[in-house]
Model the fold of this input.
Amino acid sequence: MPLLTNLLILIVAARLLGQIFRRFNQPAIVGEMLAGVILGPSLLHLIEADAALSGIAEFAVFLIVLSAGLEMNFKEIIDSLRGRGVVIAILGFVIPLTGGILVGAAFGLDVMRTVFLGLCVSITALPVTVSILQSFDLLDSDIARYSVATAIFNDIAALLALGVILNLPEQKSLQAVGLSILNASWKLVVLCIFIIGFSWLIQKLIDKGIHLERASEKLVELIGNEALFGILLLFVLAFGSVSAALGFHFVIGAFFGALLIDRKFFLASRYHELDLTLRSITGGFLAPVFFAYLGLEFDIGIIGSFWFVGVVLLVSIGTKIFAGWLGGRLLRLPQPQSLGIGIILNGRGVMELVIASIAYKRGFIGQDLFSVLVLMGVVTTMLTPFLFRKWIMPKLESSAG
Done:
């Protein structure tokens, strides 16, 4: 079918199932992902996850991250990774990574497939995390601050490892591997300097008494309301482009770019207009496409050993929950918040699929393991809001009341 027809069917099905799930007090994203599973190769075979839909899904990720970044505070995220806050981030990566590697070793996978299994288990997808937190209206909570910070750390660490693996020479001598690791490390340092440098520059301008909201209003007067939204997109695109140019995922840089845009840069009414525009485009159109596309990636017909699938799912879910809970308790967070962090960290989604698809296309893993990794990404992402609503929201609501 033509792209437009596929897109319309996907949007209608995703919105419809999303609303049905919402009526039963469940996040809409679960229904949206289920729409993709139903329409994809697993059931009806109506729509394929082709390159055109993939491009639209990537654009959706960009706007989801932009919308979330505008609602969060850069200083709070950085503070959550300082001191004891980094404990959750490290545990949230190392424990699942170890679990995935042990599963690969137990089932006799070769070294490369074992490493990629561990990497995919260790990932927490930033767009999925912020979208789930948005659906529960918790972006301004401790759970959000630590979960988002951990997701950023996990994705950067996994993508850094991916960059090292992809750049490994044919002759894997100790010296060649060491040089490859150093090459990826300096790129990460450059990205951090770029982000922190921009944050420092903006703060210096504010300290000198420069009113950035007046500058934004001048632009609106000169060019019009649309100019501000366009400049906002260009600013965030620049950060995403720098991130991609350095070999990291576009989403990492885009999120930090959006995070640097503070509410005080605009008049209150203007900020509200920007937020409303983004929510209309993202929530009404692109976010459902993104989550439905994740469902399209799943094909149950090419999965071999369901025993292996069951162990991978059990370890991927259990290690993330345990890591988040343990990190939260070490930081002396209350039990519900600690468990909530662990559950939220299970949303793998697009980031895990990105690494799995790269590994598959480069020949590091076969189609069987790729299908298992896709299933893991879909199931853990769909399961996360269910577990959070059932186990965490009642406790948070009772403590707030």
